[in-house]
């Protein structure tokens, strides 16, 4: 894969009801979430299809055993690394934790880890299909609907988080926005592209966590659809720098998500 180390190359919704997730995100975002992928074996794993024919990520159906082990509905991002085992070791050396040890799957090697403040994410070294070694993941886009457009970390220690991610993945941190009593909203970049931001965790958030903002074609239409289909809007839609709008919500199964896009003129 031609993505540089440190890119977000995949996003995954873990949910107790994949069919319910398909019925929700389809109308809200425009995605198509099909049936379980036979290549995943006993797992209920489904690909998220975009209307342009590409993929936006995957959906993992949580089993009772997974939930009993502590899993719950949420979105997780996958960060590209050259060597999953080495990256996991480096993360634990800096105070992070390994939640799922390095494992080989059909499309590569993965591990689930947390940063030192406890925010979880995946590491991945993908194996492209033969003849497609130069394939580049496009699940993240700064401006396109039906892609993840913004990656936002809410953390108990923003200074430590900036130091951790810049040292582990080659990210940069340039620029910030003053949020008053809420602290600084610090912008993060990778390979010259704005990835998102790191901010202080708000008191109502129980733990440090990454939030992912999905691009939509019309934030007002999307917000109305969220409410109609049993989701909850926590904040927004609110105008953001550049003139677009964003909101934070929870899907019917309990996974938190963000949306970003233009408003009606």
From TrEMBL:
<dbReference type="InterPro" id="IPR029068">
    <property type="entry name" value="Glyas_Bleomycin-R_OHBP_Dase"/>
</dbReference>
<dbReference type="InterPro" id="IPR052164">
    <property type="entry name" value="Anthracycline_SecMetBiosynth"/>
</dbReference>
<feature type="domain" description="VOC">
    <location>
        <begin position="147"/>
        <end position="262"/>
    </location>
</feature>
<dbReference type="InterPro" id="IPR037523">
    <property type="entry name" value="VOC_core"/>
</dbReference>
<dbReference type="InterPro" id="IPR004360">
    <property type="entry name" value="Glyas_Fos-R_dOase_dom"/>
</dbReference>
<dbReference type="Pfam" id="PF00903">
    <property type="entry name" value="Glyoxalase"/>
</dbReference>
<feature type="domain" description="VOC">
    <location>
        <begin position="7"/>
        <end position="126"/>
    </location>
</feature>
<protein>
    <recommendedName>
        <fullName>VOC domain-containing protein</fullName>
    </recommendedName>
</protein>
């Amino acid at each position: 894969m031609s993505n540089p180390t440190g890119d977000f190359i995949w996003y995954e919704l873990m949910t107790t009801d994949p069919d319910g997730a398909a019925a929700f995100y389809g109308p809200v975002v425009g995605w198509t979430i099909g049936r379980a992928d036979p290549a995943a074996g006993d797992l209920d794993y489904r690909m998220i299809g975009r209307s342009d024919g590409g993929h936006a990520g995957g959906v993992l159906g949580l089993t009772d055993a997974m939930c009993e082990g502590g899993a719950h509905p949420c979105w997780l991002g996958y960060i590209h690394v050259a060597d999953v085992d080495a990256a996991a070791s480096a993360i634990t050396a800096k105070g992070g934790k390994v939640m799922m040890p390095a494992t080989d799957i059909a499309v590569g090697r993965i591990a689930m880890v947390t940063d030192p403040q406890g925010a979880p994410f995946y590491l991945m070294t993908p194996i492209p299909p033969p003849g497609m070694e130069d394939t580049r993941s496009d699940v993240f886009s700064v401006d396109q609907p039906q892609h993840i457009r913004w990656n936002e970390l809410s953390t108990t220690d923003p200074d430590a988080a900036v130091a951790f991610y810049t040292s582990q993945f080659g990210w940069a941190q340039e620029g910030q926005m003053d949020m008053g009593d809420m602290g600084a909203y610090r912008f993060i970049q990778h390979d010259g592209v704005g990835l998102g931001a790191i901010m202080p965790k708000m008191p109502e958030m129980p733990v440090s966590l990454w939030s992912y903002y999905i691009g939509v074609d019309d934030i007002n239409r999307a917000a109305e659809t969220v409410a109609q289909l049993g989701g909850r809007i926590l904040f927004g839609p609110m105008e953001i720098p550049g003139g677009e709008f964003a909101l934070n919500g929870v899907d019917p199964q309990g996974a938190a998500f963000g949306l970003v896009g233009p408003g009606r003129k």
